[in-house]
Design a protein that fits this description.
The chain is α/β, with parallel strands linked by helices. The chain has two domains: 1-107 and 266-370, Isopropylmalate Dehydrogenase; 121-261, 3-Layer(aba) Sandwich (Isopropylmalate Dehydrogenase). The protein has helices at 16-33, 46-53, 59-67, 92-100, 124-127, 168-183, 199-215, 226-235, 247-261, 304-318, 321-336, 354-368, and strands at 5-12, 38-42, 70-75, 105-111, 131-137, 149-152, 158-161, 188-193, 220-225, 242-245, 268-275, 281-287, 339-340, 350-351. It has a ten-stranded mixed sheet with strand order 2-1-3-12-11-4-5-10-8-9, sandwiched between helices. Strands 6-7 form a two-stranded antiparallel ribbon. Helix 10 packs antiparallel against helix 11 (321-336). The radius of gyration is 21 Å and the shape is globular. The chain starts with a strand and ends with a helix. The model has no long low-confidence stretch (mean pLDDT 95). The site of nicotinamide-adenine-dinucleotide has 22 residues, from loops.
Length: 370
Amino acid sequence: MPANKKLLVLPGDGIGPEVMAEVRRVIDWMERRRRVSFEITEGLVGGAALDAEGTPCPDRTVAAARDADAVLFGSVGGPKWDSLPFDRRPELGILRLRKDLGLFANLRPAIVFDPLADASSLKADVVRGLDIIIVRESTGGIYFGEPRGVHTDSSGKRVGIDTEVYSEDEIARVARVAFDLARKRRNKVTSTEKANVMQSGRLWRAVVSEVHKAEFADVELEHMYADNAAMQLCSRPKQFDVILASNLFGDVLSDLAAALTGSLGMLPSATLGAVGADGKRYALYEPIHGSAPDIAGRGIANPCAQILSFAMLLRWSFGMEEDARLIERAVEQVLAGGMRTADIMQAGMARISTAVMGESVVRELDKIAV
Ligand code: NAD
């Protein structure tokens, strides 16, 4: 079978390579059982790239990412590189990839798998069945706006400045991603901002409304202040379908939503660029967790977030919805069978290693695939 699907795999640091090895098992299974084949290139990023090539994101890695149909990213960083100056930190690896590939829409699902409903910090009945997704603008806003920095004012006191800047095009393109996504789900977008106190928030609300009216009037749209959205996520999270947010508010709301699900080790994400004139869309998929240096090398990390990131990749980059669902179901079935890595361990369940979790997912895939 021709290998027509080009993947760049970037395991990175810490538990990255360990959890990525379990995705390889799933890929092997797919190639055996699902009549699909992938052309896989592996590259260096983060601390691993710093050690080998002196930079957290070598040009070669960026070129390979451009050449690939999709990038599967592990995680970067760790104590070994913590004392390096800011401009040489491993975390710059992911920032450069986002910037160079124009990955402006970060999609973070917060899904509560039924067997894990008790692991949430909220009551099980508040989160059972939760399936929401946060679309966060990821290349603009206050993390990039100028002026920024710390300077000393005329009285000798230090002043810290960050600037929230959004152009209407930046807002419109991420709003389109959210509306488009909602159409494939429960058809509702909640757009968050602080239009009551921020000028950029007023523009955000106006542009989202315009895009909605002109292109997505069939989708239900509600506007909500970001602070209220945080409160509503904690009290009635199931009212949401797609939440649209700026870089800053999306950062906060998506971590909050992740906490509702009980474990960092279960949550995937995707970051998408624009569809180019040639129809190609750059996309990077990664778990929301970091490199977990505290448990790296011990074989106990939960590989599910990385495996589910691969499922997202199949859905978004290759339109392989059925295969994506198979993988998601297999993960759920393993959990329903009582298997747990340490991070999601519950009384009466069987504690298993990273590798056994990967093997169990593949075994379930064998059972449920026709
Ligand atoms: P982290 O997500 O790595 O870990 C937080 C806690 O969750 C740790 O106790 C860890 O053991 C646990 N954990 C995370 N993933 C797990 C998994 N799959 N299975 C079991 N337990 C898991 O966050 P942190 O400790 O704040 O950061 C560690 C390093 O990762 C830092 O260098 C940070 O900059 C980096 N980081 C990288 C990314 C990325 O690559 N995109 C994202 C976040 C943090």
